[in-house]
UniProtKB/TrEMBL annotation:
Cofactor(s) annotated in UniProt: Mg(2+)
Annotated EC: 3.1.3.5
Gene: yigB
Protein name, UniProt field: Protein YigB
Matching NCBIfam families: HAD-SF-IA-v1 (TIGR01549), HAD-SF-IA-v3 (TIGR01509)
Keywords, alphabetical: Hydrolase, Magnesium
UniProt GO BP: riboflavin biosynthetic process
MF term (GO), any: 5'-nucleotidase activity
Natural source organism: Rodentibacter pneumotropicus
Matching Pfam families: Hydrolase
Amino acid sequence: MKFYRNLQPFKVISFDLDDTLYDNHDVIRTAVSRFVQFTQDLTQCPTFETEWLDWKERVAQENPLLSEDVTEWRKEALHQFLNAQGKSAVEIDRTLARSMNEFLHWRHQIDVPQDTLRVLNHLKTGYKLCAITNGNVDPLRIGLSQFDLILRGGEHGRAKPHEDLFQQTAHYFNVSPQEILHVGDNLTTDVQGAIQAGCQAVWINLSDKHLIDFPQATLLPTLEINNLTKLLLL
């Protein structure tokens, strides 16, 4: 555990989800692969993956705010692809529903580590807990029922590192931003976002590198840990 700033008293602990509370890399890779194969079979378009990615990039350029909601971004890109393919409104709605259900099913095939459950259950006895994510995982679908508040980028406000979700958390729990301790793995969305919003930040460093090795580290976290269980020592 390394301290970069003085840790102040806090009442709320907010958590990023993906790659903070569980390993997300294989999960998202599988979910995307299944989504692509499923939709390619539905549409009978052998070049679906390339064309859909082109539409996804186009949607992001035309509507950056929409792309902060990763679920709506995916749906809009698929909608525009299907429309360009000349599909009827009925076909578009049917394909959207089936493809998104396929994606979200695999997106939630997550094995949450027992250490994560133990840490959250222990912390919940002394603090209010909140999930702040830029992703589209529903914590309840993966067995995480410890959160008093769940906020998703795009759906509930500008995605991290914008201040929106941190400020909403402070307002919801009637605390000052400084009384929120945010825990996350990303030095930009989590650490920079939290510090700029006036919160405190725990960087969970799961690499073998030092903070100085990350050029995106523009703001120091309050402290650094290499394992979620270290939160129990605070």
